[in-house]
């Protein structure tokens, strides 16, 4: 029987919530400035991992950035074969999971990025550079709590 995870300190929860909201508002703002959607649902899940579970391997920068970009590429390849179909989206999610596992870039929210690429069929340019920018911004903002205010949780643990 496993022991339940202890509840986080209320100040840690408040800090994680505040920084996650800040990160997502920044993505929304940059997207508005660039006239491109930069805030896609999988990035909200990525922000939740970075700020809510910064010690997990799937939260680390290599996995977040690499997993998101790899899954998007799998989504584009799948879209080229299947078009914008729900069947193709399901296949892209599964294929992206396998690709992330084989490359040691596991980041579960990225499977949803593959689904979005298949269903929406965006142009790879500007989608991929914008996705990379968004992922890097999430990492950069994830580093802030440990560098200001003496926050005990450090991010990242590994690159």
What does this structure look like?
- The protein is mainly alpha-helical.
- The chain is 70% helix and 0% strand.
- The chain contains 6 helices and no strands.
- Helix 2 runs antiparallel to helix 5, helix 2 runs parallel beside helix 6 and helix 3 packs antiparallel against helix 4.
- The protein is globular.
User: Tally of extended strands?
Assistant: 0
Radius of gyration (CA) equals 16 Å
Q: Per the principal axes of the C-alpha atoms, what is the gross shape?
A: globular
SSE string: HHHHHH
Return residue spans where pLDDT drops below 50 for at least 5 consecutive residues. none
Instruction: Tell me the fraction of residues in β-strands, as a range.
Output: under 5%
The tally of helices reads 6
Outline:
By secondary structure, the protein is an all-alpha fold. The protein is built from six helices and no strands.
Please render the helix and strand layout as text:
Layout: H1 10-34, H2 41-52, H3 61-82, H4 86-102, H5 109-120, H6 124-147
Please describe the structure with a list of short key phrases separated by commas or semicolons.
single chain; 159 residues; mainly alpha; 6 helices
């Amino acid at each position: 029987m496993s022991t339940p995870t202890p509840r986080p300190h209320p100040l840690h929860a408040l800090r994680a919530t505040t920084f996650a909201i800040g990160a997502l508002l920044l993505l929304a703002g940059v997207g508005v400035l660039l006239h491109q959607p930069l805030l896609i649902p999988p990035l909200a899940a990525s922000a939740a991992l970075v700020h809510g579970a910064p010690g997990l391997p799937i939260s680390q920068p290599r996995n977040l950035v690499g997993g998101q970009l790899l899954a998007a590429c799998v989504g584009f390849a799948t879209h080229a074969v299947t078009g914008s179909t729900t069947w193709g989206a399901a296949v892209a999610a599964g294929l992206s999971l396998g690709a992330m596992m084989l490359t040691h870039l596991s980041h579960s929210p990225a499977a949803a990025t593959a689904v979005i690429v298949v269903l929406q069929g965006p142009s790879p340019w500007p989608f991929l550079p914008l996705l990379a920018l968004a992922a890097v911004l999430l990492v950069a903002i994830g580093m802030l709590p440990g560098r200001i205010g003496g926050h005990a949780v450090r991010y990242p643990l590994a690159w």
